[in-house]
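Inputs:
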Amino acid sequence: MNNHAIPIITIDGPSASGKGTVAYLAAQKLGFHYLDSGALYRLVALRALQDNIDASDEMQLAEIAGKINFSFENSLVWLDGQNVDSAIRAESCGEFASRIAHFPALRAALLQRQRDFCRLPGLVTDGRDMGSVVFPDAALKIYLTASVEERANRRYKQLKEKGINASMPNLLQMLRERDQRDSDRALSPLKQHIDAQLLDTSSLSIDEAVKQVLDSYAAAELHARARTNPVK
Ligand SMILES: Nc1ncnc2c1ncn2[C@@H]1O[C@H](COP(=O)(O)OP(=O)(O)O)[C@@H](O)[C@H]1O
Ligand SMILES: Nc1ccn([C@H]2C[C@H](O)[C@@H](COP(=O)(O)OP(=O)(O)O)O2)c(=O)n1
């Protein structure tokens, strides 16, 4: 379970909002560990696609989630010792991940594996349910978003930089469908929870978004300290 002595910042939000970029940079600045929880769902999706597992086979998917042998090293994602970073970043893999992410047994199998990333001196993590389910005691919870047009634009540029062809109308449609699927599921849906601070980055640069997270964290820390050591 979460340990109050270990500070955690959770950054949840929709696809291509910049969660991963902002969470990673905030973790670097603070010297904290970083967990990209979406990568775990993508790893399960990739292995299922490789093994021809049906998207409706909850038990097999949960078994994969409990067993897959992965690591995050040198800013890359490894599966059974193979670099699968590009493979899991494909839109098709993200889409499959979103289609299987509603299964309770799959989410349960990933729960402790995600919590195991919580280590001193702290953790910054991004996903859909980091603040609501996986780390409910986080020191700071952010709901990071941007307009769907801006997100499609960001994803388009990101894919282009990697030499991957994409069309804006297709990306817009895929993002809308993924948002809807991730928000409509019964278990751990994508939504801004009451205790999460909204950070709309539609007109913010990456540096400005990171600064806002760090400022909010400093304020949350001050507040927590004042509560534990009230001035007499
Ligand atoms: N505030 C921002 N302004 C402009 N581009 C951004 C911003 N935040 C992120 N990006 C870019 O958008 C793309 C998607 O970001 P990413 O972190 O992969 O999103 P997510 O993890 O939410 O899917 C990346 O190329 C990233 O550099
Ligand atoms: N904590 C999480 C993280 C991801 N998921 C699911 C739902 C998402 O559409 C997919 C892929 O997530 P990921 O964060 O990698 O996707 P984006 O980078 O935001 O496009 O996995 C989830 O259900 N819960």
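The pocket of adenosine-5'-diphosphate (ligand 1) is lined by residues 15-21, 154-155, 158, 201, 204-206, 209 (CB under 6 Å). Flag for discussion at group meeting.
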